[in-house]
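User: Glucanase, Streptomyces corchorusii:
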Amino acid sequence: MRRRLRILVAALFALPSALAVAPSAHAADPTTMTSGFYVDPDSSAKRWVAANPGDGRASAINASIANTPMARWFGSWSGTIGTATGAFAGAADRSDKLPVLVAYNIYNRDYCGGHSAGGAASPSAYASWIAQFAGGIAGRPAVVILEPDSLGDYGCMTQAQIDEREAMLTNALAQFSSQAPNTWVYMDAGNPGWVAPAAMAQRLHEAGLRQAHGFSLNVSNYFTTAENTAFGNAVNSELSARYGYTKPFVVDTSRNGNGSNGQWCNPAGRRIGTPTRTGGGAEMLLWIKTPGESDGNCGVGAGSTAGQFLPEAAYKMIYGY
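Assistant: Predicted structure for Glucanase:
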């Protein structure tokens, strides 16, 4: 890994300077070890473009989506997980680029929502899986988004189930701290339209946020960067008031160019957002969800499954219609 001058400025511009940012469990900064973000050569958008070169939509999808750095999601479909994360982080490292990985396999995943239900077979199975996930990354620089929706999806859960989930997330953070010292882990904090800032701050803290680098917002959703920044700052204000620390946050901008129309599952008329960079009051703006990938059998993705690449949806999202 070659050391580089820092290319990303980490700042929560709108937070009062008096709010101390709590350090994560390890101090290494992966953005200083790399020369920009990694473009996944095997993303669903890349695969579709390669398989459909004569399609009239291919050029636009290739230019506007397929070659933008974005996260790769890992779950039960990823095979031997340590091998999978190791190969992805290793390929990025050889290119001197920073990969973004999403861990999406928690036990009882999407328990209340249902569209992306699944995950590990038990809490112990998840503990083994996430330990191997972290071990695969090892000392390479990386960014990890930890279990999207896991702290928002409490609506139908018992307190015992909530406690169980929080314990799984706390253990996951411990695995990254011990095995992946050059990884920034962001716990997912939902979006501005889901859980109130005070409730989310409590959930984050109880699940171990102090040991994470920060939290993520708007994953697979559509709220504007400004709305997410306001929400992230409100969460941090609650963290400061209750627990005496704040954390940086990142925003998924992949599909928020037109903002939200109140629907979360394949709504029509959405648009791709700002490509990966710093700014907007967040530490980083990332493409975490691939534009064009379905949220499930709903909306303009009726008949599809969650994660399936829909070229027509991707094409319309480029132009916002």
